[in-house]
Each structure stands twice: as structure tokens, then as C-alpha cells.
Amino acid sequence: MFGLTFEKILLIGIIAVFLLGPDKLPHYAAQLARLVRQLRDMANGAKDRMRDEMGPEFDDLDWKKLDPRQYDPRRIIREALADEDPFKEQSATISRAEPNPEGAYLKRKRAREAALAALEPAPFDTEAT
């Protein structure tokens, strides 16, 4: 938890004994335990409230699927910038020919270049600052 090993926790405890002193240490340890208990109760309360509001769907939900750590930003950007429309309906016919990705790439490149060549340049204002 948080990269704390037994040695680090022991070192923190020894430093706390020297800084707080043996007479105040039990009081602060009790306060820390109370704080941890309150945080745990708050987390459980939030989970119970969410379960009540969502109903039976809460137990059916796959929480690992919603974990933001699983998303790769490079993949998301690559998919967003892809030339193909993911929502475009696919045709019912199946081609028997082998796919030629280089030919498709060149075809898309030529189409982009033709579209850019057809565009007029932006107007230029000589008086603008």
C-alpha cells in the first residue's frame, strides 16, 4: 500500500516516538486510528448509497472495464484520427480479393491531396496586425 514496506513504517514510527514523545504518542495514534476508521466508513457509505441508487445493476456492472488505467491514450488518439468512419455501415458483399493496404493508403493520400489542392488559400489582410 503506497509503496510502504515494513522497514519504512518502522522508521516512521521511531521518528514519531522521538518527535512526539512517549506521553503524546498514544493520543495521536488513537486519533490516526479514528481518522482511518472514519475514512473507511465514508467509503463504505458511498458504496452503499451508490448500490441503493443504481439498484440491481450495481452488482452486474463490470468495474474493471471502467478502470481509467486500462485506457491507452495513444490508441484512443490513433482511433480518433483514423480515416475510416467506425459508424459507417459495412457492405454486405464480401470481396474475394486479397486486401492491399499500400494501395488503399495511396488512394486515400491522393484523395487528400486532391481535396487540399481544390481548396482556395485563406484570405490575407495586409492591414491586419
From TrEMBL:
It is a single-pass membrane protein. Keywords: Membrane, Protein transport, Translocation, Transmembrane, Transmembrane helix, Transport. Coiled coil: none annotated. InterPro entries: TatA/B/E (IPR003369). It comes from Cryobacterium flavum. It is found in: Membrane. This is Sec-independent protein translocase TatB. The keyword Protease does not apply. The keyword Hydrolase does not apply. Pfam families: TatA_B_E (PF02416).
